[in-house]
Known about the structure:
CATH architecture of the largest domain: 3-Layer(bba) Sandwich
Helix content: 25-40%
Number of strands: 21
Distance between the termini: 45 Å
CATH topology of the largest domain: FAD/NAD(P)-binding domain
Order of helices and strands: EEHEEHHEEHEEEHEEEEEHEEEEHEEEH
Bound molecules: flavin-adenine dinucleotide
Number of domains: 2
Largest sheet: 8 strands, mixed
Strand content: 15-25%
Amino acid sequence: MTTDGSHGSGPVWDDRPWPPLPLLRERVEAGVCVVGLGASGLTAIGELLDLGVNVIGIDAAGVGSGAAGRNGGFLLAGTADFFHHAAAQMGADRAAALYRLTLDQLDRIWLETPQAVRRTGTLRIAVDRDEIEDCRVQMVALRQANLPVQPYNGREGPGLLFPMDASSQPLRRCRVLAGRARMRGARLYEHSPAIQIAGDRVVTPHGDVRCDAVIVAVDGGIERVLPELAGRARTARLQVVATAPAPEVDVPRPVYTRWGLEYWQQLPDKRVVLGGFRDLGGDREWTDQAMPTGPVQDELEIFLRRGIGVRAPITHRWAGVIAYTDDKLPIIEQVRDRVWAAGAYSGTGNVLGAVCGRALAQTIVTGRSLLDGVLLPSQRATTGLSV
Ligand SMILES: Cc1cc2nc3c(=O)[nH]c(=O)nc-3n(C[C@H](O)[C@H](O)[C@H](O)COP(=O)(O)OP(=O)(O)OC[C@H]3O[C@@H](n4cnc5c(N)ncnc54)[C@H](O)[C@@H]3O)c2cc1C
């Protein structure tokens, strides 16, 4: 049920049976314990396995049960802020370096889970003169940094085409990553929430993990898992609908509009997935309750019919939670002795979260990472743990 009593469902992405993974019921030992089996945590696990680490992963619910398996499926280069805004925030060189790392990660995601990715490109469509001008400034900034972008003026409206972006089936991606990690020796547990986290021990209701280091890879609700992040990360809900096949429309690549607030894509079977209107939900959307609500769902339905022209019935209504930061840059840092955290991607974490997951794995093991000097300090007092 939604918070208003109307019916919610699971995400449209949950289209195949998933045999549940075990619950942690004993004391186990590992080099690194990863808390959170979304795409970021699973990518961290893959990197740890590459580095020869004995790794355990736990999730409070299931693989991809958070935003990672409930999102809009856009694989976007860059951060939540448009590139020129990010450049103003963090400096043009750092912003360009980070953008390139996400472009590289897009390629990696495509290569590692081709069954869950389509290289479609994405469109940013402007809704008014202000946004047209912002697109122009964004394009100039990207071109100055030699980053891929094209002007666009098609039936969706005027805007920008990002040729390297992609569309994903996000839950399938998580499940493929989890299956592969298990085959490579990672021990993964579902329905095993971390209720105490220290660098040498993660406690769950029925078991615990003894380890040398911990990665917390949680987006929405990260400030609840690690209360020291309260005040810097703030959790909000995003809502989505999906339809039955809608042959009456043709959406060749994912589209986002109104400064990224609304986003939709059409799947290979012609279903349409649409999210947005968080701002119209008001303060009620600052919550960690992943349930659809009447007002936002109504706006989505109106836009689906009038804005996109879809007549097919709505088959899925769902919500997910993510965390925002004031500067729209993710939190990626050591929060406690030997406890590292990544999250709060401000709504764009499918690609950036994977970069952050890999960076934390590298940092813990080698003391250096691909994000050094970009989102992590370039000089470290400590070297990597021997795990
Ligand atoms: C509706 C919606 C649409 C979105 N659309 C896009 C998009 O199109 N493109 C994009 O780039 N981003 C999008 N995002 C954001 C993106 O989904 C997230 O940033 C990203 O998926 C975060 O993945 P993650 O693995 O870091 O974290 P999460 O998905 O939050 O995974 C964390 C996992 O940790 C588990 N967990 C939480 N607490 C504990 C605990 N105490 N112990 C153990 N486990 C715990 C959770 O169950 C969860 O499975 C969207 C988000 C939503 C909600």
